[in-house]
Every structure is written in structure tokens, then in C-alpha cells.
Amino acid sequence: MTAGSMRPFSRSVVSRRSNRTRGLWLAGLAVTLSALCALSVTVGTREVALSDIVAALAGRIDSIGQAAVSVRIPRTVLAVLAGAALGLAGAIMQGVTRNPLADPGILGVNMGASLAVVTGVVLFDMSSAQGYVWAAILGAGCSAVFVYTIGSLGRGGATPLKLALAGAATSVAFSSMVIAMVLPRADIAGGIRSWQIGGVGGATFERIVPVLPFLAVGFVVSLLSARKLNSLALGDDVAAGLGERVALARAVASFGAILLCGATTAVCGPIGFLGLVVPHACRLLVGVDHRWLLPFSALGGACLLLAADVVGRIATRPAEIDVGIITALVGAPFFIWIVRRQQVREL
After folding, report:
1. What is the pLDDT of residue 16?
2. Residue 101, pLDDT above cutoff 50
3. Which of the four, 24, 147, 151, 301, has the lowest number of CB atoms within 10 Å?
4. Which residues of 67-95 are buried (b: 16+ CB within 10 A; e: fewer)?
5. How far apart are CA 153 and CA 145, in angstroms?
């Protein structure tokens, strides 16, 4: 057998080994997520007995301990869904823009959703869960288009630095508008400010159910965009040469990310930096192939948000720290580190 004929065989063996390694990492993440779910149900501001945990999982709330566990169950479910949505949305946004600084919070998408919800509450007395979701998705979409348009102006088009600066400026402006609308409304100011921090406390299945269809569509559209994102990573000209409709591919992938961000913000408030940290960490494990990166980012996001929620519950017992604060403490130094690496031009 010649050396030339050995090359395809060697490549296939390396590819199988690489996929096997990635599969093991994926299984490890799934096991970690399961362990964190168990920890989230059992750990909190109140210590509960194992018998109360088992009884609460069976649907009983006959004691204070069982009631405490029954509150943690929907909270755990929401943390998993929100973390997976934000991790996946961050990976999509980084792939669509070829921007390692892309994140739903940094690009102003979350704050756009937040502004739309607050506008609906203040000006139109919006109170339904469906109204919150539709307003958040509309706000997220408009904010994404606005930031990308501003970041595309001038020489060089939409560079990572220009997008990050446009997103940061937009977030500050939208945040100021939210404060300006909320200040005269003392009756809702406390609730809005608490929601703006971002958290999963107080979750109920009644709050989760309305966002499930939007999250489901967002997950499906985003995961099906993996191959298109791989083509876009080669550059627009190469992707077009491969037969990819570049504008349509970007629009479809962005639509999935906007659905995920909007639905999550509607129920949890704007949680920042998770969509920045998770995709970068996952790339270290599986590389840049979006067929692996996207599911890894979803699982990694769920793990990080669950871990942040557990830490927030036990760090200042009997009080709690919202997950939005924990993710900011983790994500802000990570953001500075990425900027200082001098690799902010393109992925």
C-alpha cells in the first residue's frame, strides 16, 4: 500500500478518534448537568431532609421542607432552559458576525428586549406572559438590526470592535431609557429593577409554559444552522462560491438566536456574559465545528447558569444573589481578557 493511499485512511481514523473524544466530552457535560440539577433541587437557603426531597419530587407539599423543594424544581428547569438558550444564542451570534466579542448582552440584544417589555408595561399596562414574550422578541430583533447597522457604517464594515462599541453604547442608552420610564412609576419600580438584574428566583411552571414554544423553535432553528455557520466561517465569498445564500443563512441563524434571547429575557430578565463565556470555553474542547459547538454551548450554558444559581443561594445565606450578578462577576474579567488577547478581528 502506497503512502498516498494511506492518507485518506489516516484522516478517517483521526476524524473518528476526534469525534469519539468530542462524544465523551458531550457525555461528561450531560452527566455534569444531571449532577447540578440534583444539587439545585437539594441545596438552598433552607436545609431539607432526603425524605422531604423524595416526597416533593412525588408531588407532595405536606411540610415546609417539601414546599421548599417544590419551589426549587421549576427554578431548576428554568435555569436549564435559560442557560442553554443563552449559551446557544451566544455561539450563534459569534458565528454569524465572526466576532469573538459577540454576546446577547454586549451587542445590546438583551437590553433591547428589556426596553420593549418595560415600554409595554409602562405605556400599555401589559401584564400577560404572552405579551411579555412577544414584546421581548420584537425588542431583541429591532436591537440586533440597529446595532448591526450602526456597526456596519464606515470603512471596513461590521468589524468586531465596531459591533462591540455599538452594542455597548446601545445597551447604555436603552438602560437609561428604561430607568427614565420606571422612575415616575413607583408602583412597578421595585419589580422592574429586580427583574432587570436577571435571575431565576420565583420561577413557576405557569411562567415557564408560555415561553416553551418560542424556545423550542429557537433551539431547532439554531441547531439546524450549524452547517451554514461552518460555511460562513470560511468567509462570505467562499461561502457564496460553495452555493450558500449568505444573507439568508445569516438571517435564519440570527432569527433563532433572537427567539432564544427574547424568550429568555421575558421570563428571567437580561442575564449578561453567559453567551460570551460559554462558547469560548466550548471551543477549547471541540474546536470551531458548529455541528459540535452548538450542542456543547447549550449544555455548557445550562451548567454554568445552574452552578451560578446554586452559588447565589448558598453564598449569603439566608439571603440570595441573583444569577445575573454571578454571571457578571465571571464574565466581565473574561471579556477584558479576550480584548487583551489581540484576537478580536475575526474568528
Report:
1. 61
2. yes
3. 24
4. ebbbbbbbbbbbbbbbbbbbbbbbbbbbb
5. 13
Classify the phi-psi angles of 249: left when phi > 0, otherwise alpha if psi is within -120 to 50, otherwise beta: alpha
Instruction: Give the span between the Cα atoms of 221 and 252, in whole angstroms.
Output: 7
Contacts of 292 (CB under 8 A, 6+ apart): 22, 26, 286
Name the residue among 166, 172, 159, 177 with its Cα closest to residue 144: 166
Residue 276 pLDDT > 80, yes or no? yes
Higher pLDDT, 163 or 268: 268
Sign for the CA dihedral angle at 106, 108, 113, 114 comes to: positive
Give one word for 98, left, alpha or beta, with left for phi > 0 and alpha for psi -120 to 50.
Answer: left
- Is it the case that residue 223 has pLDDT exceeding 90? yes
Whole-angstrom Cα distance, residue 162 to residue 157? 9
Query: pTM to 2 decimals?
Result: 0.89
Amino acid at 139: G
CA distance linking residue 301 with residue 80, whole number of Å: 8
Cβ neighbours around 299 below 10 Å, total: 24
Element holding 163 (H helix, E strand): helix 160-182
Across 116-128, average pLDDT: 91
Domains and CATH numbers, the chain: 76-340 (1.10.3470.10)
CA separation for the pair 25, 282 (Å, rounded): 10
In the prediction, which pLDDT does 215 show? 97
Q: Taking CA 129 as the corner, what is the angle to CA 123 and CA 134, rounded to the nearest 5 degrees?
A: 70
Alpha-carbon distance of 153 to 57, in angstroms, equals 54
**Tens digits of residue pLDDT in 80-98:** 999 999 999 999 999 988 8
Concatenate the DSSP letters of all residues of 15-42 into one string.
Answer: HHHHHHHHHHHHHHHHHHHHHHHHHHHH
